[in-house]
Amino acid sequence: MRKFLFALILTLILQQIVYAASTRFDRALDFYFKNNYKQAIYLFEREVKANYRNYDAHYYLGILYRDQNEKQKALKHLKKIPMISKRYRDAQDVIFMIERPEEFKSMHEIEHEKAKENLKEDNYYDYMRKPYVVWNKFPLKVYIEPSARYSWVNEAFRGWQKATKGFISFIMISTKPHADIVVSTSRENEATDGGYNLGYARFIPRADGKIKQVEIVIRKINPNSKATYIKTDLINVLQHEIGHAIGLGHSPSCSDIMGTHCYSRSTSSISPRDLKTLNMVYKNVKIKR
Question: Strand, coil or helix: what is 55?
Fold first, then answer.
């Protein structure tokens, strides 16, 4: 009996430790996406002290310190990533940007030319460099927060399902923890690059580095804002973020739903190039249904 009680208590303690670590990382991400960088840094630093192998926390710290021009602190965290994870290409890019800015600028110009060349292709697989995430089981389970339960949200998911002829499929569920994709909305309106960032996707990792869940946030426009958006724009923005959630990176063309740096989404739609690239992402994946 004593052994049983001891084992039970130990299990509960370990569960609390894991939950606290998960909560700390999630809170840090929330602060990061809300532009509260001071608090995000504080929590990410606590996270890497408690969980040295959380390469995502190291990566975000590298980005945050880089943006604050604290290059040595940024490099300290970024250079740890190759030692603890195989997913280190993004970290190498940021290290290169910090240590050799002129060469990085030159390479960026080459990338721009590469983007123009890619417009002649029927896909952008090489341009996007790597899939964001690859799933091997469908349908994907989707939880929609009460604040996001609009008809256009369901319409956006149906659009992908129809365009892929059911290859990519979704099922709506009522429990958030069991979802592969979570959709919510925010009243925050973030101005970037002369336009408005209406949404973003963030990837929540498991301890082994695989993606546990994708959270999509669609920003609701502040009533006092002069910017107005029609239903079509909101559907297109959500379909862009769903594209990330099912594995697609960015396209250089604003005629593709995955186009990047597009001032307006009205000209975007799920295109043959999007579908061809998606087929390439899943070409060698064994799908369970």
Answer: helix
